[in-house]
Model the fold of this input.
Amino acid sequence: MWPHYPAYCSKWNPIEHKAFCHITRSWQGVVFDNYQIVKELAEKTKTKTGLSVVVDFNDKEYVTGKKASTDFLESMPFEFDEKLPKWNYSFKP
Done:
């Protein structure tokens, strides 16, 4: 089963989670006036073990309130989590 990370929840991605503390340190004490400052400071992030950060902005506008059809939901091989079915689900190959 492959986990899927919901939109705006990348901090739950284990790879990004390991980098987030270092990126946060780069941003400390800075006022974000624009996206370019965020990008430049994040890309300056480096660690002793060789971690470096590449930033790319996604300018796509996502439609909200769109619902999947019943046929699609019934044919997709995934399972919803018992506790948080709206947020947590896994795909089965």
About this structure: The chain has one domain: 2-91. Strands lie at 2-3, 78-80, 89-91. The mean pLDDT is 80.
